[in-house]
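User: For my dataset I need records formatted as: sequence, then structure tokens, nothing else. Please produce one.
Assistant:
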Amino acid sequence: MEAITKDETETFESMKEEAIKRMKMLELDKEIIVSYKDKNKLCCSEKDKIIDVPERIVKDIGEWQDKFGNLVYHVIHSDFIYETYECLSVSCYKEDWSYERGLIEDSWVMSHSINVIVPEYTESGSICVKNNKGILTRIM
């Protein structure tokens, strides 16, 4: 696999703007959006509350972002089949953004799913989410 070049990808600033658009589309709690916008702080939806993302997951997210160039903007802690941290992300390729936004309109999001129990099952793809008062849960 060839390395991603800077010319092929969007800048952090444009990806962050796209992430904020998606957070608003998902109707995340306003405090989550402000925290991300002003401080680049990732928050984690967990059942009925917002928590900090555990350090070990922050490390995994950083490694994944460095490797693939995508940008994580929110995390969902889930016990859907296995314990996972769903890392909602923006592709580094702007031409993918319209498709990814279209998924959100149908309650689907692009996610890098970090499997805590069986790390070999960590994967990227799309998941279905539900909003409950600004907090997201994975439903499929």
